[in-house]
Amino acid sequence: MQLKTNNSRFITNTIVCITSLITGIIPAQEIIEDTTTAPVAETTSEAPFQKTKIDGVAAVIGEHVILDSDITIAYQQLVSEGVSAKDVSRCELAGSLFENKLYSHHAVQDSILVSDAEVNSMVDQQLNYMTRELGTVEKVLELYKKDDIETFKKELFDINKSNRLAEQMRSKIVEAVEITPEEVREFFDDIPEEERPLFGTELELAQIVIEPEVPEEEEQKVIDKLQQFRTDIVENGSSFATKAVLYSQDPGSKSKGGKYTLNRQTPFAKEFKDVAFSLQEGEVSEPFKTDFGWHIIQLDKVRGEEIDVRHILLVPEVTRESVENAKKLIDSIRTNLISQSVDFKEAARKFSTEKETREDGGQLLNPTTGDTRFELTKIDPILYEQVSKLKTNEVSLVIPDQDRQGRQKFKLITVLNRYDEHIADYAKDYLKIQELALRKKQIEAIRKWQDEKIADTYIKLNGAYRDCEYSGNWLKKDK
Questions:
Q1: CA–CA separation, 281 vs 411, rounded Å?
Q2: Which residues contact 82 (CB under 8 A, 6 or more apart)?
Q3: Alpha carbons 9 and 146: distance in angstroms, whole number
Q4: What is the pLDDT of residues 446-467, one digit of tens each?
Q5: Beta carbons within 8 Å of 294's beta carbon, 6+ residues apart
Q6: How many CB atoms lie within 10 A of CB 233?
Q7: Each residue of 292-308: pLDDT tens digit?
Q8: Which of 138, 406, 411, 473 has the most CB within a 10 Å radius?
Q9: In whole angstroms, what is the distance from residue 74 CA to residue 84 CA?
Q10: Cα(356)–Cα(402) distance, rounded to whole angstroms?
Q11: DSSP states of 329-364 as a string?
């Protein structure tokens, strides 16, 4: 259970590589000795650093050092994840790491900030994911050849902070890039007819979700239990952390005694943050409700704009009678839809319990593109099975599903519109063509920025990495 406000499934990739981020001050005219016999030349244009000698250095990008072992680990990780060794070379992987460190370096120079709370949250989610995949924390440490969890978390923190800075820098580069209708037309006209993109079959979808009602007596049981916990903690000195480990139903924090670090921007439920930031150090809140269930919070520590909190989450039970009533209701709704006595969107607005889609008549938004179309070949496999054979305006069978707490719910899906596979058409596919044209312009802006910053940044490549062919002018050769 994560206290996130968005509904999209949080699936994070495992660590691509465990890089060692070494911040040093290196003079632009000093040479860091190579560990290979290959000649090393300087590629400098500014001199703000002091000399540092590090064995096994593949490259230095600004203040960032990339070790040869970093590239080896990244390469092995890709292969272990099923990427063919023929599909990626060490040179390509090295170039990607160089770009990432260039962005990260200049993000710091431009005073772009990434909060420690945000990075710690990312680390916690990654560790939770890896632990679920491998079974135990010990197996995670064994896989990544780490001696203890704190050292591993520190390395993950450094990696994630560097990556997040790089993301912020890339976003800053492209945020001012805009595309005019004239540019979109020119982009499309420049594509030869025989090379115009083929757009796959797309669907516009809507759904009706019926969640079983939680009986008031079940809600009250949870409230009373949390109130009892609070009394034991406040009046009898019981340990909040111990109770969280024993009773909390939030798997994301249960093993840590319910602990989270957050700030005002951390994407937790608004109700959770409102209560957390209203407390004094050591204070325990009254029970309160979010979409995830009922909570109590203890404020552990205030550190500037960040706070450390502990929480206990309890989720009210849904009775068998409530589940049966929900099933009867959705069966009745489907019967009325099939008989066309009610419109799907009208039924969604009246009956659906999914707040995010109800007001739009149940219409789904594609989380990847932000529009209402889903390309059939790229759709989630589970959703694909449910909708691929539906005709326009046909209603699916009742589909059993689960809510965030794992409780049963039911849904109906329909296809509002179907757009069959076709060659790109300027009028019909303007938004998609606009997106392609904008992306091309953004790439051009990033390349221009990269060329300028490579020229202005201390960069040195060692050994075999000087023999690679890169898209960027990392060796600063005269063009």
A1: 44
A2: none
A3: 29
A4: 999 999 999 999 999 988 889 9
A5: 219, 222, 223, 226, 287, 288, 313, 314, 315, 316
A6: 20
A7: 899 999 999 998 888 99
A8: 411
A9: 13
A10: 16
A11: HHHHHHHHHHTTSS-HHHHHHHH---HHHHTTTTBP
